[in-house]
């Protein structure tokens, strides 16, 4: 009897269920924060039973960490894709800053902010979330350096790139309560002009 054929569809359904749960968890975190994101709420949003959700994730913390891990991968892939699709030319730095600021104000990053806030006061969640947050920061910094062609051996350049990322995070936080797109884009253009001048002063610029 060939059990392989039956097992493969079950594995595919299991993967699909897990993916729906992770997607639903990110959406719930972005909308409701950690207190409002329960396994039951995520299961309902994903269209699966609570039992099915608990089969994949035994605890809410397990679900959060897996959602953040998936979200971090997605954020990194999206950021790299958008960054490397930027046109060459005089507007490249401005376009990069606009893309960066918009990505860090999207649903995935809003969910991450909610999780970071919750983890800050949760002794079980904190040690599991911090390494993931650090990974997102490293990947975003590495991508920005590559796109800008920045020479971090030049004093001040590394700090300027990091300040760009920190500003993007801060504007993402401001976007949690209201749509801050117009102001964010004005700040992005002004910051891009300052960033470009700073890079032009370095030998790599």
Please characterize this protein's 3D structure.
With 205 residues, the chain is mainly α. The model has no long low-confidence stretch (mean pLDDT 86). Helix content is 78%, strand content 0%. The chain has helices at 4-36, 39-46, 50-56, 60-84, 92-103, 107-120, 126-148, 157-174, 181-200. It is elongated, with a radius of gyration of 20 Å. It has 9 helices and no strands.
Mean pLDDT: 86
Distance between the termini: 67 Å
Number of helices: 9
Structural class: mainly alpha
Beta-strand residue fraction: under 5%
- Apparent shape: elongated
Number of strands: 0
Low-confidence segments: none
Give a quick summary of the entry:
With 205 residues, the protein is mainly alpha-helical.
Q: Which terms summarize this structure?
A:
single chain; 205 residues; mainly alpha
Q: Mind sketching the topology for me?
A:
Elements: H1 4-36, H2 39-46, H3 50-56, H4 60-84, H5 92-103, H6 107-120, H7 126-148, H8 157-174, H9 181-200
Helix pairs in contact: 1-2, 1-4, 1-6, 2-3, 4-5, 4-6, 4-7, 5-8, 5-9, 6-7, 7-8, 8-9
């Amino acid at each position: 009897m060939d059990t392989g054929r039956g097992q493969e569809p079950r594995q595919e359904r299991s993967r699909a269920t897990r993916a729906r749960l992770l997607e639903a968890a990110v959406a719930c975190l972005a909308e409701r924060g950690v207190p409002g994101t329960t396994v039951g709420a995520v299961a309902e949003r994903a269209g699966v039973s609570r039992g099915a959700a608990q089969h994949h994730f035994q605890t809410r913390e397990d679900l959060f960490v897996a959602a953040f891990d998936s979200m971090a991968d997605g954020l990194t892939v999206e950021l790299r894709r958008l960054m490397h699709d930027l046109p060459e030319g005089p507007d490249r730095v401005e376009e990069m800053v606009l893309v960066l600021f918009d990505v860090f104000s999207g649903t995935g990053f809003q969910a991450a902010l909610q999780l970071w806030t919750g983890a800050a006061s949760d002794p079980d969640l904190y040690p599991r979330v911090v390494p993931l947050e650090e990974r997102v920061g490293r990947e975003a910094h590495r991508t920005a350096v590559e796109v800008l062609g920045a020479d971090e051996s030049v004093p001040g350049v590394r700090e300027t790139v990091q300040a760009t990322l920190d500003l993007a995070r801060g504007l993402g936080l401001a976007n949690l309560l209201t749509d801050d797109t117009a102001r964010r884009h004005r700040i992005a253009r002004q910051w891009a002009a300052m960033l470009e001048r700073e890079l032009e002063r370095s030998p790599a610029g």
